[in-house]
Amino acid sequence: GDKLDGRSDLYSLGVVGFQALSGRLPFDNESASAVIVAHVIKAAPTLLSLAPALPFALAAVIDQCLAKSPDARYATGDALARAPDEALRAALAGYMDLIETGHREVFKIE
pLDDT tens digits for 23-52? Predict the structure, then answer.
């Protein structure tokens, strides 16, 4: 099999984040072996499919952690640690752009 590295831990953290933000696990079955097989062969549902109110950028952080290919996940724990803050800053910047460009009705600003 493939050599394990820290990216397998990032996958596990993605599962925890997915559950914390959606209220459910990415794969659920009464059979533990079916859950294990699902983790190996199936793509996890996108976080936004279960928690559509989350900022897209934050959901993308969790989705990247749950990528099947380790190469598609964050390279290090440090990169993952920075990602939520960067995602939320990007989301807030987008909201501020909406306010500044005249979309005041969306935010009920007088």
Answer: 999 999 889 999 999 999 999 999 999 999
